[in-house]
Amino acid sequence: MRAGFDTRMLLVFGLAFLVAALTNWTVPYEDLGLMEDGSALRWAFYAAVLSLISHFRHNQLSGKVAIWIAMGFVTAVILRIVFDIFNDSSTHNLWPFEVVLALGITFAPAFVVGLVFKVVQRTLKGENH
Question: Which residues of 29-63 are buried (b: 16+ CB within 10 A; e: fewer)?
């Protein structure tokens, strides 16, 4: 494995991107609202689940996993913004806020779940010794 490139984290990114694309791109822009329709809670839940799964499968730093998960969601949001602007340039007037919201909604739960996982893991290892 080369320094700086981890295929496991690329898989985490891909899964996060896929989840975001399936939940975001299938809804027409007029009907899309991260805060109004509960999408934000679903994305936070999906990010937490992805974080938990990747911590069970790989022994990685919580922040590293959370960054890759958040970047998967953010990339899907950015591609949706670009696609929608090509179709109608009057959409996404507040696109920077959409990107920041996606980052915050997904990074925070992924990081917290990873951190809790690591704390529980260390606690259980301490009890076994």
Answer: beebebeeeebbeebbebbbbbbbebbeeeebebe
